[in-house]
Every structure is written in C-alpha cells, then in structure tokens.
Specification:
heterodimer, A: alpha+beta, 5-stranded mixed beta sheet, 5 strands, B: alpha+beta, Aldehyde Oxidoreductase, domain 4, binds FE2/S2 (inorganic) cluster
C-alpha cells in the first residue's frame, strides 16, 4: 500500500489550526469562528468536548462518545478494548496500528474516530478468532511470522489486504510492498513474506 | 551425589567424547546423534495464535477500571538547572489527580524528567503536560566524545569523564611492542560506529495497581520479571517484594534495555499510592529514543600485524566511546574470536551529557567485530591474500572452521568474490564479504521449573521468566514434551509472573540454556511420578515402568497411554519440580558463527543494497529450529540496520536528539530486507543435559562486519564508519574519509 492510498484528513493537519491545548478553552473561539466563516456547507465543526460517533467495527455497530481529537486507534483500544492495533509511533511511521477502513488499510493513528463515522472498520481481531483463524493468521502461526508479536496485528492486517487484493497469485514482491509501511524490530520480515504468500495460495 | 557419564559431544566432523560429572538427579546428557522426537524440530510457537489474533495482552494493552495515566515533562537541554516551574494551570484542570515538579533539579541529559502529571484520561494528561511552563538555566555541556575530550569543555556529569582502563578497558598479552616491531605486514586504520537506540516497538513502562488489602500488581514491559521489583519501586510502594506481583504476559521487545524498574515505573507506583487508582505509564516514542537505552558509539584505532603468509601476530589499539552519563562501559570486543598472540588495547569510556547507554544485543560485539574484520580485510589486501583464507588460518574454533566452508559454499565465494576489489564494470558494483562472530553462554544459575498434571492429562509448566518473543514458552514445552512423550502443543506453559518459580532476567542469551535443562528435568520428574502411580496400580516397582513412544510399559505386557496414566492422578493433582544445577565441563565455551554478505553498491548515488546474507550459527543443540531461524533473521536484520541506517544524531549546541522518530531514525524496513539463508549447525555443547547454548546475541555479531567486507570487495575502498550512508560511501570513493 502506498502512502497516497491512505485516505482522510490527517490528525496533524487538523491540529495545525487548533493547537494542542484544546481543553484550555482558548481553542473554542477559533473553532466557533471557523464554523461561522465556513457556513453550513463547510467542514462540520465538532467538540472540543465529547461527541457521538457511530461506526461499524468488526461487523458490529458501535456508538462512541469521544473527543474529536481522539484517533481511531485510541478509540479502538479504549473504550472498545480492541487492543490488537498498537500505538508505537502515533504518527503514521510504523504501521503497528494498521486496520482496514472500508476495506482499505489505514494507519489508525492518523485517522480521527469521528472521521470513521458510518464507515466499516476491521481490526486484526475482526479478521479471525483463535478458534477460527483467517488464512493469513494461520500462515503466520505456521511460518513463525511473529516474534515478540507487537507489530504482528498490523502486519497481519496489511497481509490480509494484500491477499484480498491480489488473490492466490500474490507474489513476494507484492507482499513486500503491502508491508513496506510496517516496521518490525524483531526481524520477522522473511517469515512474514513466506506467510503472506502461503496464505494467498491457501485461498 | 554425582555420577560420571561419558558421551559424544561437539559437531559432526569435530566430535569429541566427554566425560562429565553430573548430579544424581540430573538427566543423562543427550549425546550427539541422539534420536529425539521433538527437540530439534520445527515447532510453531505456543502463543502464536494469541499474537496473530490480537488477543495477546502486552503491558501497553492493560486497561483497568478507574485507571489513571501518568506522563512527564522532559527537559530539552543536555545540561541545565530548573529555575522555575509553573504548573498552576495544570493543577487547576479538572481530571488532574496529581502533579509533581522538580524545581532546582540539575538536568544532565536531554529527556530527563522535570515534572510529572497523573490524570484521569490521556486527553487531560496531554493538556496538563502542555500547560506546564519550565524555565531553565542552561549550563555548558558536551554531548559527543570529541567535544567531551576537548580541554576547554572539560565538564562532566561524573567525576571523571574518561574511565580509560576501567572495567575491562585495558588489556595486554604477549609482547605487543616487539611483535609490532617485527610484523612483516602491518595495517593501521580508524573505524567508527554510531549510537544505536534499542527502538523496541513496545516502549518501557508499567501499570501499577494496589488492591484493597494493600498488595500491589505491576504489569511491566520487562526482560526481568522475577527481579523487576527492586529497591526504589519497593520503597515507593512501601511493600516487601513478596507483596508485589509482577506480570509480563507478553512483551514487545527489549534487546537489553529493559531490566529492573526504572524512574518511570517508580513514578507509576508513587502516583498509584497517592491517587488510590491503578496508574499506567509507557514512555512516548521520543522518550524511548532519548532515555530508553542505546548502544554506545565507538572510535576504534586498530593496528593489526602479522607475517607474510597471513598469520596474525599482534593487535594494538585504542578506543573511545560514550555511554552517556551512565556507569556502563563503552568498550569494543575487537580483540576476540581470532588467535592473536600479542594484544595491547586501551579502551576509554567517555562521560557525556546524554542519557545512559544500556546493554544492547551482544554488547561491545557488533562494533568490535566491524572494526576487527575491517582490519583483517585490509591486512589480507596488503599481504595479497584471500581474506577468507586469512580468517580461516587464524581461527582456532573447530566449529567455525566448518562454518566458514559452509558459508563460502552457499555464497559462492569462489565465483562471487572479486579477486580485484571494485573491478566490476559500470556504476553498480557487486561484491561479497564475510565476518566471524562469537558469544559464550551455556546458561547459568540454579533455576526451577514447576509442572502440574491433573487427571485429564492437562500439563502446566511454570516459570517466572518472560518470553521476549524468543520463544521461551515453546522451548519449555518442547523440553518437557521430549521427556513425557506428548506433543509440545498440548502443553500449557505459563511464564512472566512472579507467582511462578523465579526465572533469570533475559540478558546475555541466557534464558534458553538456563531454563531448558530445568524444564527437561521437570518432564523427567513428572514421568517418574506417573511411573510411580502405575507401579502402585500394576503392583510392581516403578523402576520397571518405562515410557517408549508415548506409551508406559510394565512387566507382563502391561501398557498405558499417557492419558490413561494421568487417569490415576488423584483430584488433588500432581506437582513436580525440575531444577538446573551447575554446568558441566563442556565442548567449547565459545559459540561460533560467521556470516557472508553479497551487496550491490551504486557508486553514483552511494546507495548500498544488501542482496543476500548467509548466516551460519551454532547455538549448541537447537531445541526449536523454527524459532532459532527467527532469532537469526532478527540478529541479521538488526545488524544490517546498524550497518546501514541507524544513527542517533545529537545537536551539539542544544544537546538534544534531532531524530527521535521512526521517520528520522531509520530502522530497517521490509523493503530493504535481503534474502537471508540461515544455516544452523548443531553442536552438543556438553555444558548441560540438553547441550544448549544461547543464540539471541551471537546472530547479530558478524553482520555489520560482513556487509562492510562485501562493500570493500565491491568498490575497492573501505567505508570505515557506520552507518554506511550514501554520503559516507561517496566520501570513501572520493578518498575523503578521515
Ligand atoms: S502507531 Fe500508527 S503508524 Fe505507528
Ligand atoms: S515481532 Fe517484535 S516487533 Fe515485530
């Protein structure tokens, strides 16, 4: 997946105007002013307090109450308690937080929870369960695709996307490209590639 | 009571009979060629399913009811005194539970904590930290070795800023002066390596929770679960060790930087006590780079001398490196592995205003072997000899002698090694190189593994040590499985918890060879216990009950499967303990390894592409060949990353790190990962009943040296500074290297 595949407003772009100290109150005015300027057709201004967002996570509708600055990654981990996706760099540099948003891989730390409103989110937990593993998950087990396992949920999601996209002809080069944005400090890369290609063959 | 056992150990082709004295309770050592069912096979890791489905719980994943979050304001200065702190806005914020400030504190490294907050949510925490204003009185500092050694900036966070000769820093053997004088071939050069941060994906940190009875539970991302709760943490909790439970169910990488409780863990404990809530704090990525530990850098001046036929006679040198303001040494293992009759080495650890270094996968070794192997290449070139032949000529290790041949064959040395370095036509030039590695770890300590079985045949194996991702869980299961004759996957292994028998901290590749023999013995004791139950049932001596191919057999054709035997276990269950005792006198203390690399260097851009690495390693008798291959892959990948990409860059004026993120501090990614051929040579080490040695560290020792050697072969000049960035390659090509 290339960087340009990742859709949506980035958190950093959003913060650029607002500043981080949202709860200090100072940020309220510019946001309100912004809302007036932009009018009804402009961007929907929310917050800074908690707002509601309804998303479909692993097939189930979930209504969250989160501050607008809450990333999708944070929302998944708490309140939803789906802790597979990991916070590592929190700025789109490592891939440990990779999830599927409407079937496309995204770094969930660069997507706001409110941006996922009405969209389908699939996390590592949603691909398969311990009793019913996804082909990629099974292949990771068989080929030792995980060492410490911290990067693994992100790797699994990235590989699952590659398998879905390329089908059983997935090449090692394609698997490599699909996971090029996922860092692993333990050095699972060779086994991850093997697992992805094997999973694709399984169908 | 002891008994003598004679058996075959070592490696096929260089085997040797050993006679060892073993404790009466110890199992008979498995000889070379022993027919084993599970040990030495490919066993998928037991926690694989939990890891691939995202249900494995790491410290970072612990969410508790009413949990609060801690965080710190860190100093951006290397050396400063905190003049004032205004935390009034933070204190006034709803949701802020506690604030502490360190007015007057002398900061001696960037990243040092000057204020801390505990809040009910991450959002409140972020706001409160951002609202704290700190004023500093900035002091003079030196953050690099060269700055620190200049007389005019002779300021040091420690009493002396140069501990030359301390802790293994000075070494002399033979007659170096005379040998240097008489050397027929002599090369002299300076090699440099950069500071590498551990960059484990899970940061340091913990969650501390105190229950109603006042007992504490600490979830910690640590390599030393059993020993984690020490002095400062216990004082903060005001509890004895026995009332503090430490849990490390899974942990996201340590590589040497995560042992005992550190200041941030103590902070969690203090806040948990103060607020009455569970408190969580895992470092930010920036802090992880700044204070989470690092491999010291090195400047190594080496002179290697020998005879015209390629025999080394002397190595002399001096090195400098910084371990920040810590006590750890910054030495280099640049005089090891090969036969060097005379050595004169002086190694300086220079104190700087930076956060302390830490043990990092094979401390002192990757940097030391990079320089030593570079000197060997230069020596071979000057003597007009094949660099591989020179290495083999001076290598005393019987196993490595075999490994050099295997590696040379696999990389196609005869075909691919350029007789004239840099002779390829065109801008992209290829070459191959090689380097040796070593380690020494046969396990140690007096650890125990507990094992329970119930009447359903459910086996639980327990030890407090952690599984860093090395596969400790699975390894314990395999060792038990071999004795019980049941598949490893059916065994339930519990690790990373102080409720189980204490286990070693995972440093020095010690965990596997320290615990494996204890697990094997636990399996053996369980087998004896089942035989005893069958003996009662069959009215015979338990010694007459044997286990073959997973079936218990007794006199008169009596038979019972494992499951049937377990049926005799009373409801109260069965519990045994296996213990590791002292090591025996083994085959060879040194773990051998060598690696070969093939690279392509674009001489127009300076970009190095590692195309293939052949890694030949020994780790004694391998228990799980699948996890072993993963370990070697990991060592090679970290080694390439060290050789080509990683460098902590400090702004000399500000003293702060300028690249504390993963887009500026590069670690190797998937796109750059070469083909890695792992060859594991089984060596029955003889030091314990299994014949194991550690593997985590040796696998990363030769890599940088092998790549640099290949680069030299490709372009005809040495790049003597790591990481070998395009700019450094181009500088070397243009002769601009120092
Ligand atoms: S945590 Fe999202 S990319 Fe690193
Ligand atoms: S398995 Fe440890 S970071 Fe990838």
């Amino acid at each position: 997946m290339s960087k340009s595949d990742r859709r949506g407003v980035t958190r950093r772009a959003l913060f650029k105007g607002a500043g981080l100290a949202a709860a200090s109150g100072a940020v309220l005015k510019p946001l309100e002013a912004l809302a007036k300027e932009e009018g009804a057709s402009g961007p929907r201004v929310q917050g800074p307090g908690a707002v509601k967002a309804t998303l479909e996570v692993n097939g189930a509708k979930q209504t969250l109450e989160v501050e607008p600055r809450t990333t999708l990654l944070q929302a998944l981990r708490l309140p939803l308690d789906l802790t597979g996706a990991k916070p590592v760099c929190d700025r789109g540099q490592c891939g440990a937080c990779t999830v599927l948003l409407d079937g496309e891989p995204v770094y969930s730390c660069t997507v706001l929870a409110v941006e996922a409103e009405g969209r389908k989110v699939t996390t590592c937990e949603g691909l398969g369960t311990p009793e019913n593993l996804h082909a990629v998950q099974q292949a990771f087990v068989d080929h030792d695709g995980a060492q410490c396992g911290f990067c693994t949920p992100g790797m699994v999601v990235a590989c699952a996307y590659a398998v879905a996209k390329h089908g059983k002809d997935l090449t090692e080069a394609q698997a490599r490209e699909a996971t090029a944005g996922n860092l692993c400090r333990c050095g699972t890369y060779p086994h991850v590639l093997k697992a992805a290609v094997a999973a694709a063959k399984e169908g | 009571m002891a008994r003598k056992v004679t058996y075959l150990a070592g490696i096929e082709g260089a085997e040797r009979e050993l006679t060892v004295e073993v404790h009466d309770l110890d199992a008979d050592p498995w000889p070379l060629g022993a027919k084993l069912k599970y040990v030495g096979t490919e066993v998928p890791r037991l926690d694989g399913v939990a890891k691939v489905t995202g249900v494995a719980q790491f410290t970072q994943d612990v969410n508790l009811d009413k949990m609060a979050y801690a965080g710190e304001v860190i100093a951006p200065h290397a050396h400063a005194v905190v003049k004032s702190i205004d935390a009034s806005a933070a204190r006034a914020m709803p949701g802020v539970l506690a604030v502490r400030t360190s007015e007057g504190k002398r900061v001696t490294y960037a990243g040092s904590s000057v204020a801390a907050v505990c809040a009910t949510s991450r959002e409140v925490l972020a706001d409160a930290l951002a609202a704290i204003r700190v004023e500093y009185d900035v002091q003079p500092h030196a953050v690099t070795v060269e700055e620190a050694l200049k007389d005019e900036v002779r300021v040091s966070p420690r009493r002396s800023n140069d501990t030359a000769g301390g802790r293994g820093g000075a070494m002399r053997r033979g007659n170096p002066d005379a040998a240097l004088e008489s050397a027929e071939v002599k090369v002299e050069a300076e090699y440099r390596t950069a500071i590498q941060t551990h960059s484990a994906l899970e940061p340091h940190g913990s969650v501390v929770s105190i229950d109603k009875e006042g007992n504490a539970t600490v979830w910690a991302s640590t390599q030393a679960t059993s020993g984690f709760a020490g002095g400062r943490l216990l004082r903060a909790l005001e509890l004895p060790r026995g009332r503090v439970r430490v849990i490390t169910e899974h942990m996201g990488g340590g590589f040497g930087a995560k042992f005992g409780a550190q200041s941030w863990d103590v902070l969690c404990a203090e806040f948990a006590k103060e607020t009455g809530r569970p408190v969580k704090y895992l470092l930010t990525r920036r802090s992880e780079h700044l204070v989470g530990g690092n491999r010291p850098d090195s400047i190594q001046k080496l002179t290697l001398g020998g005879t015209k036929d390629g025999t080394f006679t002397v190595l002399a040198g001096e090195t400098w490196g910084t371990s920040g303001n810590g006590r750890g040494g910054a030495g280099c293992a640049n005089f090891m592995g090969y036969t060097l009759p005379s050595v004169r080495m002086l190694q300086h650890t220079v104190s700087t205003f930076t956060a302390r270094g830490a043990a990092f996968r094979a401390p002192r070794h990757p940097q030391g072997f990079f320089a030593l192997e570079g000197a060997i290449d230069a020596f071979a070139a000057k003597a007009g000899l094949d660099p591989l032949a020179v290495r083999m000529k001076n290598d005393p290790h019987p196993v490595r002698q075999i490994q050099w041949k295997i590696g040379a064959e696999r990389i196609g040395w005869k075909r691919n090694h350029r007789k004239v370095a840099g002779s390829d036509k065109g801008p992209v030039k290829r070459g191959v190189g090689c380097a040796a590695g070593r380690w020494s770890q046969a396990g140690r300590g007096n650890w125990s593994v507990d094992l329970t079985i119930d009447s359903s045949g459910h086996v639980i194996v327990m030890n407090g040590a952690q599984d860093l991702g090395t596969g400790t869980r699975t390894l314990l299961a395999i060792c038990v499985a071999e004795e019980l004759g049941i598949p490893p996957a059916t065994i339930d292994v519990r690790v990373g918890d102080t409720r189980y028998p204490p286990g070693p901290g995972s440093g020095g590749s010690t965990t596997a060879p320290s615990l494996g023999p204890a697990a094997r013995e636990a399996g053996l004791r369980a087998r004896e216990a089942l035989a005893a139950l069958l003996g009662v049932e069959w009215k015979t001596d338990s010694e007459k009950v044997t286990l073959e191919d997973g079936v218990f057999k007794g006199p008169g054709g009596k038979k019972a499967t494992f499951q049937e035997a377990c049926g005799l276990i009373p409801d109260e269950g069965l519990r045994v303990r296996g213990t590791r005792r002292r090591n025996y006198d083994g085959y060879n203390r040194e773990t051998a390894g060598c690696q070969f690399a093939e690279v392509a260097v674009d001489t127009e851009t300076g970009v190095i592409t590692v195309e293939r690495v052949v890694a030949v390693h020994d780790a004694g008798r391998l228990v799980n060949t699948m996890a072993s291959r993963s370990q070697v892959n990991g060592g090679v990948i970290q080694g390439i990353s060290f050789a080509l990409y990683e460098e902590r860059q400090l702004d000399e004026n500000l003293g702060d790190m300028v690249n504390p993120t993963f887009d500026t501090y590069k670690i190797m990614g998937m796109a750059d990962c070469p083909q890695i051929d792992v060859v594991l040579t089984t060596v029955v080490s003889g030091f314990n009943s299994i014949g194991m040695m550690g593997l985590g560290e040796p696998a990363t020792v030769p890599t940088a040296g092998a790549i640099a050697s290949a680069v030299y072969n490709a372009i005809g000049v040495q790049v003597r500074q790591l990481p070998m960035t395009p700019a450094r390659v181009l500088a070397a090509l243009e002769g601009r290297q120092q």
